[in-house]
Amino acid sequence: MPTNDSSTIKNLLTIFVCAGVSATINLSIPMRPILNSLGIFGPAGGMILFGGFIFVLWVTLAHLITGCKKLSGVSTAILIPAFCMLVSPWYGVVDPPWFGVYGVIAFLVMGLMIEFSCKPKLSFARLGIGGGIANLSCLTVTWLAIGFYTHVWPSTRFLPLYLAIAFMSGVVGAVIVLVLTKKTKICQS
Amino acid sequence: MFGSKPFFQVEPTTACNLNCEICMRSWLNRPIGFMDFNGFKKLLNLNHPTYIGFHGWGEPLLHNQIYDMIAYASSRKITTSLITNGTLLDEKKIRKLFSSGLKEFAFGVYRLKRLEKVSEKILLTTKLKKEFKLKDPKIFLDITVYEGNVDEIPKIVEEASMLGVEAINLHRLFNQHNPSFKALDEEKEAKLFGEIKTLAKKLKLQTFLPSKHTNPCRVVKYGIYITWDFKVTPCCFLPKEYLADALSAKVKDIVKSQPYKDFVKNMGKHTVCSKCII
Ligand SMILES: C[S@@+](CC[C@H](N)C(=O)[O-])C[C@H]1O[C@@H](n2cnc3c(N)ncnc32)[C@H](O)[C@@H]1O
Ligand code: SF4
Ligand code: SF4
Fold it and tell me: By residue range, what is the domain housing residue B42?
């Protein structure tokens, strides 16, 4: 049995590692050519398509590994934009200088949704739908922020398609984690 | 090759706050106007260029929606480039340009004196880019080369490096209306370009030099010009060579049209193209 102290350290480590991996993947995927070839125009095209795999998956994983500890999902989620912003500003926007706050808000909402979907007990349907909604809500906050400050909005023609892809991406990301954790039994709960 | 036009040069405005002696703007006698943002969006809904250069015969920063135009193009994954005389820049505008997703940020210069006038603004731009840890935009000097400034070019390049500029783009001057400004002859040009290549390498500046002029020219092979009032023309040196309306036809169809084909076929005899060295 791990002691309280050692499990706290293990949980913190899990949160940092998962957030770090997520941020690293986000910064290293060559989004532009991929999105170009698929005809997905942004804003936040990467989040539409890959949000489930790059973000939802790692936040859910951290939350499950820590035994669904309260705020572990939220902490992992807000660390992701924080890590990314060490390398470059959020979506490259530096006007206003505090634009990065929107990144943190968007991921906070994502973290909350994921934590909510893990209660009261884990199920594929609940976690999957939660992951879909988590990616969608993060995307919506990001779209609103980019739209409001740079006047670029997603195309209304493709909006339903983008929403559907973002939702599915979130669902798949969350379900992959549940399958993995069940198979490997790394989940503490 | 002539069927697809990956490069669009878009003229945001014909208004300018300067009147440079080398520039064709004042000779062209064209109305002053600003490109309509909704029209610009329509242009991008009709066409899928891979690159847009925002510069025509005017100062793009005088267009108050230039940031929105760049951001809109960037959101469609188009590589965007802007050339400015730099005089109107301040921190707020630089931040807005950075935030728009701009990929190439160039300062148009042609004399050392002119560079000195905007050096503070260039320094502010490179300093802010470093401070914000931004990967883009690449900061350029866009240098026009001609007989009258050949001796100043090495000094301009050294100055560029001191200001933290990442790349230099040298291009030839062409002004069919004012013969007092002459482009370099081949020999002088080759000597200068050789010297600049060595210098830029030493200063770790990325360098872009123009290739040999051909007929048909490389501009026509890959690009097209869109004036502020949405007229499609072959290039910026021929803003009155009307081919079609950019809002009612796709560029890929315009270049299949008879007027465009005739233009390309007759470039060798064209009064302007036959003298062009670009
Ligand atoms: C026409 S200006 C427009 C953008 C902005 N107003 C500026 O001066 O940078 C774009 C570039 O063309 C250069 N230029 C001006 N007159 C030219 C000419 N006759 N031939 C070639 N380049 C020229 C400018 O120095 C600048 O580098
Ligand atoms: S070169 Fe640029 S700044 Fe100078 S007059 Fe022409 S458009 Fe204006
Ligand atoms: S003037 Fe003619 S030759 Fe020169 S760049 Fe334009 S199209 Fe090409």
Answer: 1-102+216-277
